[in-house]
Amino acid sequence: MAPPPRPKEVCIEALPADLAGATAEQQLTHALASFQAEMSPITAADLAEVVHSARPAFRRGIGWSAQLREQQGRSRLQVTVMHVAGAELCSECWADEASDLAATTGLMLAMLLGIPVSTQARAVQPYVDAQEQAPEKPAVDTPQQACLDQQPADPSPQAPVPFADSSDDGTSADADPALAPLAPEEVSEVHHRVLDLPQAARQELTKAFREHFRVPRNARSIGDRITQRQHSDFIALFLEEAQGQLQPEPPATPGP
Question: DSSP 3-state assignment of 71?
Fold first, then answer.
């Protein structure tokens, strides 16, 4: 019996010269942004389909893993997206509440990578002359097809919405604006604001962020956890309160 063919070797793309001095978190953000700029939506967050769609991310030095661990006598599933520079993104859920671990893993991996999931997602079709189209095709499909073929600079209300996380009770969080993903430039701006804090205030913010969003203890920093609107809002509120505490008190009026 002939041995099975070896998989084709895939080379990891070299880091751009302008990111040579970037932090691990910045390199992961750049790799994700480059991948998300060219990926297509998928119709279901099946693990095999998510991994197939994520192949361009793997060429940019991104990998992933899934781990089952015990916590308080229950099984907990943790999916981790990691970059060769050392930064990581994690997502967790209770495994004993998942009817299909592979499907749950696919959903969590799609969320971490920012892969849009839509039941109406369709691959971009090449241009076809109108005379070659089937005459029985309804006319109402024409505007939708034109919208899918074009790639407008501004997002369309009909465009598929990226997969959002779900709450602990299993309810969908697609309509929650707090779970909206941050753009790479927004993440970078939040990082700069945090790094500008004095060391004591920065440590206090890190501790509060870890407690509020239940960041695992093995996470080396919170930089790669700032991915959603709720994260930037939490930090903005903290900075506003910290700035108010640092305001100098007015001098006391001397007595008579």
Answer: strand
Residue 71's nearest CA partner among 216, 252, 168 is 216
Question: Could you tell me the sign of the dihedral formed by the alpha carbons of 209, 215, 220, 225, in that order?
Answer: negative
Q: Rounded to an integer, what distance in angstroms lies between the CA atom of residue 30 and that of residue 108?
A: 20
This prediction's pTM: 0.44
Residues 161 and 180 sit within 8 Å (Cβ to Cβ): no
- Pick the closest to residue 147 from 137, 134, 157, 133 (CA basis): 157
Q: Is 239 exposed, middle or buried (0-12, 13-18, 19+ CB in 10 A)?
A: middle
- Reading the chain (256 residues) residue by residue, the pLDDT tens digits are 566 565 555 566 766 766 768 898 988 898 888 888 888 888 887 888 889 888 898 988 899 999 888 877 888 888 999 998 899 999 888 877 667 788 888 888 888 998 988 765 444 444 444 444 444 444 444 333 333 333 334 444 443 334 334 444 444 445 688 888 999 899 989 988 888 888 888 889 999 999 999 888 887 888 888 999 999 999 999 988 877 765 555 555 555 4
Distance of alpha carbon 50 from alpha carbon 68, whole angstroms: 20
CA 25, CA 221: separation in Å to the nearest integer?
Answer: 9
Give the C-alpha separation, 59 to 20, whole Å: 18
Q: Which residues pair with 62 in a beta bridge?
A: 83
Q: How many residues does the chain have?
A: 256
